Amino acid sequence: MDRIILHIDMDAFFISVEQRDDPGLRGKAAAVCGSLSRGVVTSANYEARPYGIRAGMPIQEAKRRCPQLILVEGDHSKYTEAASRIFAILKDYTPLVEIASIDEAYLDITRSQLLFKSPLHIARSIKDRIREKEKLTCSIGIGPNKLLAKLGSRLKKPDGLVMIEKERVEEILKDLPVSDLFGIGPKLTEGLNSMGIFTCGQLGRCPVSLLNRRFGVIGKRLQEMGLGLDDSPVVPFDEEEEARSISHSVTLEEDSSDSNLLRKVLLQLSERVSRRMRRDSFYGRRVTLTIRYSDFYTFTKQKTLSQWINSGNEIFHHATEIFESILHPKPIRLLGVGMSLLKKDWCQLDLFEKRDKKDKLLKAMDRVNERFGDWTLTWASLL
After folding, report:
1. What domain range includes position 112?
2. So which residues are the catalytic ones?
3. Half-sphere CA count of 291, side-chain side, radius 13 A
4. 214/302 same-domain check
5. Residue 235 in contact with residue 98, Cβ under 8 Å?
6. Strand partners, 88
């Protein structure tokens, strides 16, 4: 059975919530910012966008471009509450809901369509319910995978609905600019353009060897993106259910290629993951490393182990092996470490491993750090 994935993207979410609650903002150029005195725009409405105002723009620049711009100081708790209600609606259609950020999610409705007629019927129903209950609009893309569903949700904003059928993928991607694909940012676009690659069709036809030579290990993934291929699953996470994975990530203060700094960050992330695992008595067998480069391209690689682990040092060892197996073409912006294939009660998982002393030591370290603060007791390599 072919997969059917939905990507739901709320339209200008933060400022739309503010416009809903304050009718005086409607029809006027307005934006949400972290602080009225300084900082950046976090969400601009569609009336402000003709002035070139976008998320991430410094407030001073936004006001220079649009002097009549109305600025609203953000209320994160309000947006989180609205997002929680929206995600609850999505879970009425499938348990396979992956929350990508506070204002977007992926749904795998491959099996749900048998209960809810067609994918278009499901998408329209979701849009109607969000509009009715939250007085907000969203754009939805439907496709055979997450990459194409995400593309669909971006093609007809705001309040759009686009279905990309498997049979039409080649036609749609043939002349589509590579920059329209999620994951290909300005710097990666510039690099591809320098090779004479401007469209997804050209990217899909480019030999992997040439892409690898220019971009390193992500070359194969780039070609797959040009072909519209993406086998990444929709990974749900519900705190009310048993954890399917435990992960931590951090955005670096500055993009970096410093191997010593990056190793230290990996060790800190590994320790945080391991402490959460021990707190809930989890052991895992799959280590996942996530890397986001300076051009915002995000790469994930996994390693499945033969033994069950929950020690930060062991997680770090495997995460470092993955990290060092990759040729990094750009400075790194974000690092993430995760563990999956989780099980509780390790003694039932491997009766031949004697880990009592190590477990007692790790739990003792956790107790000290919880009482006196993070990193009171840590590994020498973190110092």
Report:
1. 5-12+77-168
2. 104
3. 27
4. no
5. yes
6. none
Query: Which residues have a Cβ under 8 Å from the Cβ of 77 and sit 6 or more positions away?
Result: none
Residue 303, sorted as left (phi over 0), alpha (psi -120 to 50) or beta, turns out to be beta
Structure tokens at 60: 């001073």
Distance in Å from the first CA to the final CA of the chain: 52
Q: At a CB cut-off of 8 Å and minimum separation 6, what does 161 contact? A: 120, 123, 124, 127, 139, 140, 142
Task: Name residue 338's amino acid.
Answer: G
Between CA 322 and CA 328, with CA 324 as vertex, the angle to 5 degrees is: 105
CB 318 within 8 A of CB 252: no
Looking at the structure, tell me whether residues 65 and 136 fall in a common domain. no
Backbone angles phi, psi at 331, to 5 degrees: -60, 155
Q: Are residues 110 and 63 in the same domain?
A: no
Per-residue pLDDT of the chain (383 residues; tens, 9 = 90+): 789 999 999 999 999 999 999 999 999 999 998 776 667 899 999 999 999 999 889 999 999 999 999 999 988 889 989 999 999 999 999 999 988 888 999 999 998 877 888 999 999 999 999 999 999 999 999 999 999 999 999 999 999 999 999 999 999 999 999 999 988 888 889 999 999 999 999 999 999 999 998 888 788 999 999 999 999 888 775 543 445 789 999 988 889 999 999 999 999 999 999 998 888 788 888 999 999 988 878 888 888 887 889 889 999 999 999 998 888 888 999 999 999 888 865 333 333 334 444 555 555 555 545 554 554 445 554 44
Nearest C-alpha neighbor of 246 from the set 311, 335, 338:
338
Residue 251's identity, in one-letter code, is: T
Q: Which distant-in-sequence residues (6+ apart) come within 8 Å of 144 by Cβ?
A: 2, 3, 4, 5, 164, 165, 166, 169
Same domain for 307 and 263:
yes
Whether the upstream peptide bond of residue 158 has omega within 30° of 0, thus cis, is yes
Tell me which of 130, 150, 168 is where a domain ends: 168
Which DSSP symbol is given to 317? H
Pair type for strands 282-293 and 245-256: unpaired
Angstrom distance (rounded) from CA 169 to CA 237: 29
